[in-house]
Amino acid sequence: MDDVGAALERAIGALLDVRAPGATICPSEAARAVDPEGWRELVPRARDVAGRLAERGEVEVTQRGAVVDVATARGPVRIRRVSR
Length: 84
What we know:
Helix content: 40-55%
Oligomer: single chain
Radius of gyration: 12 Å
Largest sheet: 4 strands, antiparallel
Distance between the termini: 27 Å
C-alpha cells in the first residue's frame, strides 16, 4: 500500500473512532481529511481502501443501510465498523 492508501486507511479509522457505534462515514470524509484541497480526486481511492478494510473484516460498506460490495456498488456508499 502506498502513502496515500495508508493515509486514507488511517483517516477512515480515525473518523470511525469518534462516531457512535453503528454510525457511518462517507468515503469523501476520509478523502477530505487526507487532502482538503484535492479530496474529490481521492474519493475513488477511499472507496477502494474501504473495500480492502471490508475484505479484512474491519468495516462494512453499506448502501441504503444494506451491506454491499463496494467494487460493484454504484452511487453513494457509507462505511461503518463491523459490529462485534
